[in-house]
Specification:
Layout lengths: L2 E7 L6 H11 L7 E7 L7 E6 L9 H25 L2 E7 L4 E7 L4 H9 L5 E6 L2 E7 L2 H7 L9 E7 L14 E2 L7 E8 L2 H10 L9 H14 L4 H11 L2 E8 L3 E6 L8 E4 L3 E5 L2 H5 L16 E5 L1
Antiparallel strand pairs: 1-8, 1-14, 2-7, 2-8, 3-5, 3-6, 4-5, 9-10, 10-11, 11-12, 12-15, 13-14
Helix pairs in contact: 5-6, 6-7
């Protein structure tokens, strides 16, 4: 059992960091192991934003092991800095969100997929997200702890998705947490509640097309599936409708792109989703309590039906 949530401001930007914190904290009982945010700020077309993981939180646990890992972290950060210089990026900003997660903003005129490959060639370095608008933050702990750790309450943007995870089949670590970014496509992220039964056959088919996967989580398959279709010119709504037919299992998922938020629910509708919508704001979550955490007044919500697909535009 996991919890998912999404919000989109159709009238401009809002405090999506704080809103997603409150929504995910309200869903904490559905998944206390890790929490993730996919936040979309105001994009600058010529500036890429990437977030990198250079260690796991657990790696810093013991005193002796922590000292060794901190030395590796320093080496990895120096290697990333050197690689970016080699690639000739125009660095706009760089900071350490935590000891083990780095954030870079830069301009780059070359092939971004090649750049991503060369960064991930550095031992121990993994790109969590990349794009012109997306900031993907995920870590161990609940929403309040992670929002404080990464200073998310002041983040303003147009839309966001989030996830609270209860680990059932994979480790409790950052790699296994949601949202998932579709490597190496810009600004595409997915959160998912459910299970895909044709994961391995679909993954092998996509790997034959040249796609690569960074985890064994079925939710990453949805992100890559969506990105592949968008890259081939298929509209997001059409992509989601195809996914209902082509992805087997029980699932409800949310997908965000630079300027859209979408939802899809399988034909058995076994995984819950509640929807609130008005002229200015759309909010979705696994339970109504999450929506009421940001809209405490009288509201009317609906439950999307089986096989339903919806897409909203910023």
């Amino acid at each position: 059992m996991c919890g998912i949530a999404g919000v989109i401001h159709r009238d401009g930007s809002g405090a999506v960091g704080r809103e997603m914190r409150d929504m995910l904290q309200a869903l904490r009982h559905r998944g206390p192991d890790s929490t993730g945010f996919g936040l979309y700020g105001t994009p600058a077309d010529d500036v890429y934003i990437i977030r990198l993981k250079i260690a796991e939180q657990a790696d810093l646990g013991s005193r002796k092991g922590g000292l060794r890992m901190r030395e590796r972290i320093r080496e990895r950060r120096a290697a990333v800095d050197a690689r970016l210089r080699e690639l000739g990026v125009d660095l706009v900003g760089a900071d350490a969100a935590t000891e083990y997660v780095l954030r870079y903003a830069f301009r780059y005129d070359g092939n971004f997929a090649n750049l991503a490959d060369l960064i991930e060639d550095i031992d121990g370095v993994e790109i969590l997200s990349a794009g012109h608008a997306l900031e993907l933050i995920k870590d161990l702990g609940d929403a309040e702890a992670i929002a404080a750790r990464y200073s998310l309450d002041s983040f303003t943007g147009t839309h966001a998705i989030g996830h609270t995870r209860m680990a059932t089949e994979s480790d409790v670590d950052i790699r296994s947490a949601h949202p998932y970014w579709a490597y190496p496509f810009n600004d595409i992220s997915v959160v998912h509640n459910g299970q895909l039964t044709n994961y391995w056959s679909k993954r092998r088919a996509m790997e034959r097309q040249g796609h690569r996967f960074l985890s064994n989580c079925d939710s990453e398959l949805i992100a890559v599936y969506v990105a592949d279709h968008l890259e081939r010119g298929v509209a997001l709504e059409d992509t989601l409708r195809r996914s209902v037919d082509e992805l087997d299992g029980v699932f409800t998922y949310l997908v965000a792109t630079r300027d859209q938020l979408g939802m899809a629910k399988d034909t058995m509708a076994a995984k819950p989703l509640v929807l609130y919508e008005d002229d200015d704001l759309v909010a979705l979550a696994s339970e109504e309590v999450a929506i009421r955490s940001i809209l405490p007044g009288e509201i009317d919500t609906t439950d999307p039906y089986d096989g339903e697909v919806k897409v909203w535009q910023v």
